[in-house]
Amino acid sequence: MTALLQLAAKSLWNRRFTAGLALLSITISVALLVGVEKVRSEARNSFTQTIAGTDLIVGARSGSIQLLLYSVFRIGDATANVSWDSYQRISSHPLVAWAIPLSLGDSHRGYRVVGTTDTYFEQLRYGGDRALEMASGAWFDDLFEATVGAEVARSLGYSVGDAITLAHGTGNYSFVQHDEMPFTISGILAPTGTPVDQSIHVSLQAIEAIHLGWQSGMPLPGQELSPEAARAAELEPRAITAFLLGLESRAAVFQVQRAINAYPDEPLTAILPGIALQELWSLVGIAENALLVIAAFVVFAGLAGMMTMLLASLSERRREMAILRSVGARPIHVFGLLTAESTLLGLVGALAGFALVYGAMVAGAPLAQASFGIHLTPSAPSARELALLAAVVAGSACAGAIPAWRAYRLSLADGLSIRT
Amino acid sequence: MSSGSTQSIIALRGIRYRWRPTAPVVLDIEQLDIAPGERLFIRGPSGSGKTTLLGLMGGVLSPGSGHVYLAGADLSRLSAAHRDRLRADEIGFVFQMFNLIPYLSVLDNVLLPCRFSRSRQQRAGAEREPVEEARRLLARLGLDQENLLTRDVAELSVGQQQRVAVARALIGRPGIVIADEPTSALDADSRDEFLALLQEECGSSGAALLFVSHDVSLARHFDRSLDMQTLNRALDAEVGQR
């Protein structure tokens, strides 16, 4: 057995150019397959890491996935708001330990602005049970102070004390700027690997202040206020976008959820983040499976390429087979030699594909973090990935069995006579 | 069937072979015995049934009728796996040319029979390591430069390749070396030199030598010489039919 493996390895090395090409196609196809699987699991992991410690998410009545996406992941927009009155009533419920209001809808150079309170900094948890920390400066204290996420500061080159203006709306380019009321950066948060990194946090009152004198989402001409005038104004929020709840006891979660969903004064939706995530995965799962199927077909194509390479080499290897038979190799050895070659190619290709993906993850982690907020951590291969690896190796053994069978037949027919 | 079958390294009795049951007989040999250590020359032009004869002796072909004895064992009573093992144990082959596996070094080529035959491995390693035995054989055949042993076999001259093939045929002392036109790619001088080496080495390892060639002028180097024309009665029948 080891003798055959040695023979196979040396034979492949002898044909290293064609074997290398076959290897390359297997490597790339396996990298694609593993990459799809890795991105899938890492994205899920990253999403799951984002919301920890939050028992309920409450927003205006809508689908749970939509509420989850805009409140936690800052993807998409809310269709309606929650009144401040409802927020206050629910957050003062005896079973509620804390509440984090979120007021969304403004942005700064493509990054979302979140109007919130100190509770956000104190109670928000991510990645298990980790609290937010300041990298420099302090959480906002003044009306015109902002606390930016790590990624915002990094990519825009901000440091504490810089002045920024907010824009109305959430696009990358906004035509309506709140430029009459500039903000000062009071602090920068430490990186979390969650959408917090891409957010700019200001007080709820600040959100009210920059919209003073506005109507229907547009500034009224001649009604703009100066910052000084805004400070003097009544800044109690009228509405927020959503809020996160922490309960005194997790056991109360369904009771509170029912109460909120049946809230008489306003149509509201309360969701459990974990359940909403499951709904999201089952939705996204269709696309993920489609991607996996495509990647599997690419692997199939890679293996078929290797099979073609082995089949094409057979006619020039009939002499080699006859020599091997003359020194005592049985036709089954010839079969084994070819299968060993394909299995070796599959194994090396699959391992190289894995190495490629893990290398790319290490190299591309900063980019994925910056562009998608996906936190890539090279971890040990999961059971699913190992199963993929085993499947590729088994597939390559099967792909090799076809040329091996042909070589077996040829060597039975040729015997010791050398034909070329 | 005959006492000769137990003494001979190879014995053929009443062999008739056809490629398909309906095809004409291509090989018809009443009796052929090769004694241990004997040097036998068989003149066989192409089309004389030579390839078939070697296939039968090596156990990769089975005769329709008759018996092939290799080292006393009746090949027709053995399974294909047994025949392959016996061939590896008892026969060293040298072919016309390109005898070597291109992706193995000279040493690995010589050691190849030891990988498939345990008894060749044991016999080669009886006095020293098989690798040392391979080096010794190569040295005796004039291939003792160290750089030659690890070189790509494709870089060797044809004469050198044939000598490596002889070393491979002889390692582990098989009962017989069967050489099929091994000198056809060599010029006259290296042919005689090669023939002398082959004879000498078979003699010193105690192996019988069956040398098959179309070149009748080589017959004088051998103890005994046969002609396929007379050995293979199927050829007479064919001539008679014409």
Describe the structure.
- The complex is a heterodimer of chains A (420) and B (242).
- Chain A has 420 residues and is α+β, with helices and mostly antiparallel strands.
- Chain A is 53% helix and 17% strand.
- Chain A has helices spanning 2-14, 16-50, 64-71, 84-91, 118-123, 150-156, 204-210, 227-232, 253-261, 273-314, 318-326, 331-372, 383-414, and strands spanning 56-60, 82-83, 96-108, 111-116, 125-126, 130-131, 134-137, 145-148, 163-164, 167-168, 183-189, 199-203, 214-215, 218-219, 239-240, 242-247, 268-271.
- In chain A, strands 1, 3, 4, 7, 8, 9, 10, 11, 12, 16 and 17 form an 11-stranded mixed β-sheet that branches.
- In chain A, a hairpin with a 2-residue loop joins strand 3 (96-108) and strand 4 (111-116).
- With 242 residues, chain B is of the alpha/beta class.
- Chain B has a single domain (37-59, 78-227, 235-241), classed as 3-Layer(aba) Sandwich (Rossmann fold), CATH 3.40.50.
- Chain B is built from 11 helices and 9 strands.
- Chain B has helices at 4-7, 50-57, 80-90, 106-116, 118-124, 130-140, 146-149, 158-170, 188-205, 228-231, 233-241; strands at 10-17, 27-34, 39-43, 65-70, 73-74, 91-94, 176-180, 208-213, 224-227.
- In chain B, helix 4 (106-116) packs across helix 6 (130-140), helix 4 runs parallel beside helix 8 (158-170) and helix 8 (158-170) runs parallel beside helix 9 (188-205).
- The longest helix of chain B has 18 residues, at 188-205.
- The relative contact order of chain B is 0.19.
- The model of chain B is unreliable at 1-5 (pLDDT under 50).
- Classes of the chains: A alpha+beta (420), B alpha/beta (242).
- Chain A binds chain B through residues 3, 7, 10-11, 13-15, 319-320, 322-331, 333, 415-418, and chain B through 51, 54-55, 58, 60-61, 80-81, 84-85, 87-89, 91, 93, 95-96, 98-104, 108, 112-113, 115-117, 120, 168.
